[in-house]
Design the sequence.
């Protein structure tokens, strides 16, 4: 079944997935030339999806999770990595996005980051990827916190390296918010450690029912759930805890935005699902606290209000950032409904949204590379000068709207089915209603880039170079492809959902 | 002729023909930009693919008449979401109309676009080809998912056509067009499809309909009526009031696009979808027995009359024609709502008859614009003397719309009225008749103005020089004009096809009434 032979390294793939980028980041700090650092990063980024695919295929074949004991120390004593369908799926999404955008990075980074800092930039990028992958692969609550911080700290740096001076402020904002979120998460984990005496997710899951039943520990345990919920909600930019996101995405360098938009919130969502479903279990998470109601309300509020903000935005990157908040709302909506169809929809949308949002930001990155701005007044009429770039932008945008024949439609279909299964017909109309707003904001920018007279900057522009167009069209093509062939997304998501909901309902 | 066409494709299986019918226009969309520097070759691509497409559809026709149900299952996108095509008689009829008119429209487009020196002609022909491909996919769709997919592609591919001129006015029209069509399809049609799936677990079209109206799992009539409302307003392309604004707004587009919208594809796709949903999702039995259709009968009747009245007050020729279309589409929606065998036959036939009549009228409006840059009805005094052929064609199109013999429109009105009688809605007959009078009131003055008033600024005693539109336009106009006449004599060919539509288990008297009213003309050889 395995397409790639790893030889003796085969049993160590889970740890290699983290160690390779970690060591790579160390290596790039010693490199002075940006181009060489880029090449090292490229090689590493291309290795990671191969490992992820191998892991995913293994898990799908055996149906059993892969358990990796670090240093040979078994579960209660050592840290354990665990790869099941869900984590393998998210690992693949993150590592694929990381790999696809690397060809794009060469010119984009060379243009936006001054030479001495370029290798630092790649260092931070590799650290960030290692952190995100670590969040997903680890089965240890504290280890997850460590990786959360690794990815966050490197993200702050990545954002602060933006050319615009406001990038510093945006990074600082995110630093404050992100730290609050991480603190809340660690407080929650601390409380859980007190009540269960373990940090291993599996052990926690088996001991939690007893802890909740114990009147002395019940409140501490439920408080822990509340802390973890809010802390991660901040990280995944759940409305109204999203305020850090638009500025961070808008002022970060193009490559960082594209990467973070596709992956960063997704890792936090993964952790949220892991703690909520695998550790606490659906019954406990959803019946002891009014989490589903709150989550549902905030998701819907995000879907509408963030989309409306996107309509009135005149900076293309900020517009897409608001759209991201709305799209995260879709994902959390499916989690809140917590049935087979809706969870499948959420997981599918993790992949689909990662792909199309990265494509959209890459297209803007290409525009930025050519004309140095993505404000509407500067990019008007650019479609005629960069038809291939902007064509991909429109294709990915159609996916965002959820037109049938694109992957976005599949996500919406399952989310809506989930709402129908719960008898929540009004939610169906809210899902389609908010995607109508996305028609407005995508329609607006489409009109600007295709139908207005070219601005002074745009009329000078040339089509983006091939190294930028290739990744862009790969992702835009995937948006359409995944709207027709859903074996890779829906089938895996459905299996992961069965495992998550299995035995509880 | 038909024998010759079928002999060309003898070796192809029906699934291959479906595939070819979908791929030929799609391939044209790729080939047209290749020749963007050589306009003659570029237009040749359009004409050749239009001809090939027509060969495909016309060679499917005898197979469908022989009782075959050509199918093509492409791919199961996700469980329950299947990309599949199946040709039933109604879809066959629509595909024949669209593919045949594409040839005529292409000839006309060449004359019009060149005559007007329009910009971005390559983009125009590409979008046109994509629109035709999605129309064929819509006509052949075997389930609601495939239909919805094609429906949305049709909207998006026609948007650049509507905004073709790029003026602020065109952009505004484009926004209205997008928001109304995409908006209704997303917010109403998609939930309707989702709920249908939730209630029945299938999206496949079936002869009896898939919504249970009686038996153990019957749904309450109010639910059926509500779902029907979602579908009716969700199918914005059918331009049921109040979702009709996009159609008059879209008249800013070049005339060949208006012809595409009004006759070949877009609105026809809308009413086709309405018929398809009524017959194959609800089942006309279910609708008439539960009474879930009653409210639409009244709404559609209102639309028929109201749109005609609005049309009378329009001075812009294309706007007047647009409101006329809104009214004529409501005929078909009304026919679907009446839910009797004869009314369905009338509705299907009206798709055909209205297509030919309305495309003639729009071609004439475009010809007037190309030749004299006149757009308002009040400017048309005496134009019949300058453009005799165009205005005679306009007269014939008008008479067919009104429903006078010997023009095609006669038959569809006949069956529509018969259907109203069958369904027990006598007042609907009155609606059809009053509407015919209103048709006369808003269309005939244009003709009389053109022929009987003097040409302003021209001495009355001197002969007026002929100044017609480019030849390509005139050829197209002549073809559709003759089509309006021919359809009167050969309507039975279409009726034979329509009678094959499987309406499920009907009460015995209903089909009899269709047979009893079979056409008196003897011409069986319409090929």
Sequence:
């Amino acid at each position: 079944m395995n397409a790639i032979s790893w030889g003796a390294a085969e049993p160590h793939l889970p740890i290699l997935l983290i160690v390779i980028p970690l060591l790579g980041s160390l290596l790039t700090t010693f490199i002075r030339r940006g181009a060489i650092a880029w090449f090292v990063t490229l090689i590493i980024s291309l290795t990671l999806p191969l490992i992820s695919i191998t892991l995913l295929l293994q898990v799908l074949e055996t149906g059993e999770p892969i358990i990796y004991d670090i240093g040979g120390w078994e579960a209660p004593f050592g840290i354990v990595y665990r790869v099941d369908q869900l984590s393998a799926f998210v690992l693949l999404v993150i590592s694929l996005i990381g790999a696809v955008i690397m060809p794009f990075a060469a010119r984009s980074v060379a243009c936006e980051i001054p030479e001495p800092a370029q290798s630092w930039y790649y260092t931070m990028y590799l650290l960030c990827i290692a952190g995100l992958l670590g969040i997903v692969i680890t089965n240890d609550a504290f280890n997850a916190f460590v990786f959360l911080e690794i990815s966050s700290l490197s993200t702050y740096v990545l954002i602060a390296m933006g050319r615009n001076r406001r990038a510093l402020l945006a990074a600082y904002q995110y630093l404050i918010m992100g730290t609050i979120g991480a603190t809340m998460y660690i407080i929650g984990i601390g409380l859980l450690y007190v009540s269960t005496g373990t940090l291993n997710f599996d052990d926690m899951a088996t001991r939690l029912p007893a802890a909740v039943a114990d009147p002395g520990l019940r409140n501490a345990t439920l408080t822990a759930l509340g802390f973890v919920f809010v802390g991660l909600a901040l990280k995944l930019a759940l409305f109204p805890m999203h305020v850090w996101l638009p500025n961070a995405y808008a002022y970060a360098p193009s490559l960082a935005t594209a990467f973070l938009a596709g992956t960063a919130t997704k890792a936090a969502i993964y952790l949220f699902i892991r703690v909520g479903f695998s550790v606490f279990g659906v019954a406990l998470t959803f019946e002891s606290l009014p989490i589903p109601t709150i989550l549902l309300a905030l998701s819907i509020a995000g879907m509408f209000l963030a989309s409306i903000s996107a309509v009135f935005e005149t900076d293309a990157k900020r517009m897409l950032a608001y759209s991201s908040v709305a799209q995260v709302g879709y994902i959390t909506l499916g989690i809140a409904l917590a049935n087979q169809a809706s969870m499948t929809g959420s997981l599918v949308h993790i992949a689909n949204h990662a792909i199309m949002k990265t494509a959209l930001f890459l297209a803007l990155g290409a525009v930025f590379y050519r004309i140095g701005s993505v404000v509407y007044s500067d990019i008007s009429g650019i479609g005629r000068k960069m038809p291939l770039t902007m064509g991909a932008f429109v294709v990915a945008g159609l996916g965002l709207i959820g037109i049938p024949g694109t992957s976005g439609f599949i996500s919406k279909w399952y989310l809506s089915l989930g709402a129908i299964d719960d008898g929540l017909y009004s939610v169906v109309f809210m899902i389609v209603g908010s995607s109508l707003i996305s028609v407005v904001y995508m329609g607006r920018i489409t009109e600007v880039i295709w139908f207005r007279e070219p601005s002074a900057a745009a009329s000078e522009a040339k089509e983006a170079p091939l190294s930028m167009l290739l990744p862009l069209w790969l992702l835009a093509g995937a948006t359409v492809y995944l709207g027709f062939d859903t074996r890779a997304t829906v089938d895996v998501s459905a299996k992961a959902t069965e495992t998550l909901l299995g035995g509880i309902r | 002729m038909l024998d010759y066409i079928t002999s060309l494709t003898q070796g192809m299986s029906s699934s291959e023909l479906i595939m070819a019918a979908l791929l030929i226009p799609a391939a044209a969309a790729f080939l047209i930009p290749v020749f963007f520097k050589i306009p003659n070759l570029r237009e040749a691509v359009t004409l050749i693919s239009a001809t090939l497409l027509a060969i495909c559809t016309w060679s499917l026709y005898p197979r469908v008449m022989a009782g075959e149900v050509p199918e093509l299952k492409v791919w199961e996108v996700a469980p329950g979401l299947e990309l599949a095509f199946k040709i039933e008689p109604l879809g066959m009829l629509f595909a024949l109309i669209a593919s045949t008119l594409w040839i005529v429209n292409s000839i006309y487009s060449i004359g019009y676009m060149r005559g007007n020196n329009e910009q971005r002609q390559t983009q125009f022909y590409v979008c046109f080809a994509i629109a035709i491909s999605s129309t064929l996919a819509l006509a052949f769709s075997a389930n609601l998912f495939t239909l919805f997919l094609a429906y949305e592609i049709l909207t998006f591919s026609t948007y650049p056509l509507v905004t073709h001129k790029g003026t602020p006015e065109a952009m505004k029209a484009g926004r209205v067009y997008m928001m109304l069509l995409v908006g209704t399809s997303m917010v109403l049609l998609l939930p309707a499809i989702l709920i249908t799936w939730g209630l029945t677990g299938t999206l496949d079209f079936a002869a009896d309909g898939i919504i249970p109206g009686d038996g153990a799992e019957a749904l309450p009539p109010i639910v059926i009526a509500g779902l029907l409302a979602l579908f009716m307003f969700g199918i914005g392309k059918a331009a049921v009031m109040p979702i009709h604004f996009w159609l008059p707004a879209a008249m800013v587009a070049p005339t060949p696009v208006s012809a595409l919208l009004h006759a070949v594809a877009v609105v026809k796709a809308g009413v086709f979808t309405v018929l398809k949903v009524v017959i194959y999702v609800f089942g006309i039995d279910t609708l008439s027995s539960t009474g879930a259709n009653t409210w639409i009968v009244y709404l559609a009747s209102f639309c028929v009359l109201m749109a005609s009245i609005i049309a009378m007050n329009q001075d812009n020729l294309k706007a007047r024609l647009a409101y006329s279309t809104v009214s004529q589409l409501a005929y078909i929606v009304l026919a679907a709502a009446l839910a009797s065998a004869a009314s369905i036959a009338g509705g299907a036939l009206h798709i055909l008859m209205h297509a030919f009549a309305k495309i003639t009228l729009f071609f004439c409006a475009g010809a007037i614009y190309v030749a004299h840059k006149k757009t308002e009805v009040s400017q048309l005094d005496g134009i019949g003397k300058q453009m005799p052929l165009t205005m005679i064609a306009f007269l014939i199109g008008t008479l067919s719309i009104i429903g006078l013999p010997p023009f095609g429109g006669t038959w569809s009105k006949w069956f529509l009225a018969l259907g109203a009688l069958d369904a027990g809605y006598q007042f609907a007959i009155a609606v059809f008749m009053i509407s015919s009078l209103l048709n006369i009131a808003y269309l005939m003055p244009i003709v009389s103005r053109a022929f009987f008033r003097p040409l302003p600024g021209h001495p009355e005693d001197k002969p007026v020089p002929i100044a017609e539109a480019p030849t390509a336009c005139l050829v197209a106009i002549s073809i559709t004009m003759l089509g309006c006449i021919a359809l009167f004599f050969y309507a039975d060919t279409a009726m034979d096809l329509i009678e094959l539509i499987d309406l499920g288990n009907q009460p015995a008297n209903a089909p009899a009434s269709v047979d009893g009213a079979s056409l008196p003309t003897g011409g069986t050889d319409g090929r």
Observations:
- Strands of chain B lie at 71-78, 81-86.
- Residues 507-527 of chain B have pLDDT under 50 and may be disordered.
